[in-house]
Amino acid sequence: MKPYPAWTSFKSPVKFRIPTAENIVPIRLDIEIDGQRYRDTFTWNPSDPDSEISMFAKRTVKDLKLPPPFVTQIAQSIQVNIVVVARNFCG
User: Family, per the entry (predicted)?
Assistant: First the structure.
């Protein structure tokens, strides 16, 4: 009998809602703080339980070495994008 690889896990699989046109939100960010600018476009799945806006913002700022005030602005901008799309989608 072969041993299982170290990365094998017996935990139950994460429940994930497959992205569809109904639950994917287009996000456009254009933020400027103290002369430094961050622009990005991507899609966001708000129904994904592993998608936390604040964690995404923190990781983005850390990865791109942006000043800390960008965390709040990125998180707020994503939230606004989601609300706008939800209003337009729901009527």
Answer: Belongs to the SNF5 family.
Q: How many domains, in total, are found in the chain?
A: 1
In angstroms, the CA 63 to CA 76 distance is 19
Residues 75, 57 contacting (CB under 8 angstroms): yes
Residue corresponding to tokens 């337009």:
88
In a domain, 73, yes or no: yes
For the chain, report the end-to-end CA distance as a whole number of angstroms. 59
The number of beta carbons lying within 10 Å of the beta carbon of residue 54 is 13
Q: Record the pTM.
A: 0.73
pLDDT digits 0-9 by tens, 4-38: 445 444 454 545 555 565 678 999 999 999 999 99
